[in-house]
Amino acid sequence: MLAEVARTQFKLDRVIFLPTGIPPHKSAPSASSPQRLAMVKRAIHGHPAFQVSDWEVRQKAKVYTVDTLAHFREKHPQDTLFFIVGSDSLKAIKTWKSGADVLRSASFLVAERPGAVWTSIPLALRRQTQKIAAPLMDIASQTLRAHVAAGQSIRYQVPAAVARYIQTHGMYRKAPR
Fold first, then answer.
1. Could you tell me what percent of the chain has a pLDDT over 70?
2. Most buried residue, 7, 11, 56, 123, by most Cβ within 10 Å?
3. Best-predicted range by mean pLDDT among 65-69, 115-119, 140-144?
4. Domain limits, the chain
């Protein structure tokens, strides 16, 4: 939903989703790279302006945002690059590898997240970014995984095709005791 709001608000030609291969900031994810890629493909299927790139997954190493933006800058030198990010992530950009370079590499579009309201972002950062006019959504992947593990519904929180994929592949279930 946020990608569609950003696409229409900022008149973006397309939105490219980039599932990470090996996240540099987390321990091993509970879903494999191919599984995350498959879920993104299902989530955006049929939207003519949405695409998925497996570039980060194919790197088979930790990939940092600065590297990804450099890749897309080289691949599309005439395009204006936008980077959609949550306000919670933006607040931590100083901790990112080459965070200042990342901010200069793309136009940041920021989705407000619970616990990181727009006004809590330092003014200097707000001036370098643009806020996406979207409703505040409190849906986090960690919460969705916990719901699945507890046998609770994630209906309407993820696309139906993604929920079916998670169910079919038995993902995020608690291990039997």
1. 97
2. 56
3. 65-69
4. 2-137, 139-170
* Residues 55/86/2/25 CA torsion (nearest 10 deg): 30
- Each residue's pLDDT tens digit, 157-169: 999 999 999 999 9
SS (H, E, C) the chain: CHHHHHHHHCCCCCEEECCCCECCCCCCCCCCHHHHHHHHHHHHCCCCCEEECCHHHHCCCECCHHHHHHHHHHHCCCCCCEEEEEHHHHHCHHHCCCHHHHHHHCEEEEECECCECHHHCCHHHHHCEEECCCCCCCCCHHHHHHHHHCCCCCECCECHHHHHHHHHCCCCCCCCC
pLDDT for 175: 57
* Beta-carbon contacts of residue 151 (< 8 Å; ≥ 6 apart): none
For the entire predicted model, the pTM comes to: 0.89
